[in-house]
Specification:
The protein has 73 residues and is an all-alpha fold. It has one domain. The protein has two helices and no strands. The protein has helices spanning 3-8, 12-70. It is rod-shaped, with a radius of gyration of 28 Å.
């Protein structure tokens, strides 16, 4: 079965309007779940990166401050 021949005799609105609307109705909750999962995962990755960067900043700041205050140079 050739897909091009199947859609060739149909009006443009069937191909570009009706079929996508049917796909959204059938798979809409699945698409929303996947998009929500990806957004949540991206948010968690950004929070993780910010926390790791903050810890690295604080450790470097306090270790350099403690080494300069001891006068070991």
């Amino acid at each position: 079965m050739d897909v091009k021949r199947t859609f060739a005799g149909l009006p443009w609105w069937v191909t570009w309007v009706a079929i996508p609307v049917i796909a959204l109705v059938v798979f809409g909750s699945l698409i929303a779940h996947i998009v929500g999962f990806l957004v949540g995962l991206l948010f968690k990755i950004l929070i993780f990166a910010a926390l790791v960067g903050g810890i690295i900043y604080l450790v470097r700041r306090f270790t350099s401050a403690s080494s300069s205050s001891r006068g070991d140079w």
